Amino acid sequence: MTQHRASLLAATAPRPRLLCVLACAAAPALAGDPCAPSWDHTPGAPGATASVHALAYVPDVFGGEGRVVAGGDFSMIGGVAAARLASWNGSTWEPIPGSPNGPVYAIAVFDDGNGPAMYVGGAFSEAGGAAAANVARWDGAQWSALGAGVNNDVYTMHAHDDGAGPALYIGGVFTQTGGVNAFSIVRWNGQSLAPFAVGMNGSVRALASWMHDGSPRLGAFGGFTTAGGVSAARAASWDGAAWSPLGAGLSGVGQCAAPHPDGGVVVGGIFGDAGGAPANRVAWWDGASWSPLGSGVNDRVRALRVADLGDGQGPAIYAGGDFIVSGGEFVPRAARWDGATWAPIASTIDNGAVRALAFAPQTPGSPGAPGAAPALWLGGDFTVLETQVAVRVTRLVGCASDEPPPECPGDADMNGVVDFADLSVVLSNFGASGTPGAPGDLNNDGEVDFADLSLVLSNFGAVCE
Length: 465
What we know:
Layout: E1 17-18, E2 38-40, E3 52-62, E4 65-72, E5 76-77, E6 80-81, E7 85-88, E8 93-95, E9 104-111, E10 116-122, E11 126-127, E12 130-131, E13 135-138, E14 143-145, E15 154-161, E16 166-172, E17 176-177, E18 180-181, E19 185-188, E20 193-195, E21 204-212, E22 215-222, E23 226-227, E24 230-231, E25 235-238, E26 243-245, E27 254-259, E28 265-269, E29 273-274, E30 277-278, E31 282-285, E32 290-292, E33 301-307, E34 316-321, E35 325-326, E36 329-330, E37 334-337, E38 342-344, E39 349-350, E40 354-360, E41 375-380, E42 384-385, E43 388-389, E44 393-397, H1 420-428, H2 450-458
Antiparallel strand pairs: 1-9, 2-44, 3-4, 4-7, 5-6, 7-8, 9-10, 10-13, 11-12, 13-14, 15-16, 16-19, 17-18, 19-20, 21-22, 22-25, 23-24, 25-26, 27-28, 28-31, 29-30, 31-32, 33-34, 34-37, 35-36, 37-38, 39-42, 40-41, 41-44, 42-43
């Protein structure tokens, strides 16, 4: 495994590993002159026959080929019979055999020590023809249940290491797993599905990770007002020992979340206040307090992602939902935050909401190849984008690199997995300059900056053998 770094941290002992599924990811800056990202509606013509609720980039389950996977209510996508779940192979959609018998609302990737696998959650009772209560695992060949599953809908799944080892955290509106009380959140460690820390008194609709003073935090957002028995208005963080409120929380449901490029977490939903101050449906928790993101937007935010499309603008926050206006400007259903204002990414998106966003660091079908371009994928209920047919799924393709990526980008400590240890190396050395290859300088340019942070975020959880 080739690495371009001058100093290394000690490798840790083997253990279950997180795999490429932060609530958002950002691609490394790409070589060459900046370009203008462009729409490719091929995946959406003819597109899906019903809503696309979930999208995810899955790097290591389909024979080593990175693919985007779509989940939802559909029975066909791209003219192919594919019930509720399908993968994009670079040119067409392919069904996933034995897909669940009900809607899919969440997709994640996690290595529980038995190899990388794709996990799906939703409102179903079977996967692969066998019992699987609202959550299931696909290893590329067969489906398996996660213990007894849960007794109601799953809305979100997220891989996180709270210091006790990696686990897949699962949120929704359930109250039990295997006959044991489990209020809206459980975790899977590869051996058992179990509740922890009492849970919440309402729905959990989004989960996200960030670093706080060098320690990992897991954020939960939804419709609850208590977490672990502690008052927490729809926003709480887990530090590995207990739940804590995020200030005064949110005035309405938190529906989606992603780590902010500057630290902390950005949250979207249907609230009007965050921390007791106006914040129209999107807000940033910086680790100490809430801030609005500009004027916010005029209707629900359903999806958030951070992506760098290689256009020279660096990592940006993208939002999707039902909204059409921000600060008097027209931003139909999908927008980009540039640090000061929300700007539209399309002149029109018609006939329905954007429900899901995913970032693919490479164009599926050509993983690791020179010229592979990053893309931001959109899914939902829409059928037309800028007068072009784009039925419930499409993608905004960024700028291709002229050079192949390193063999294990983002792996600062060279232990074969991109995880919180690597994020900590970059954050603890952030702003350092002068010596190419110094700790945290993953791209070897002599600066520890957002380009290095992007390498970690875009490859978070990747396993490099």
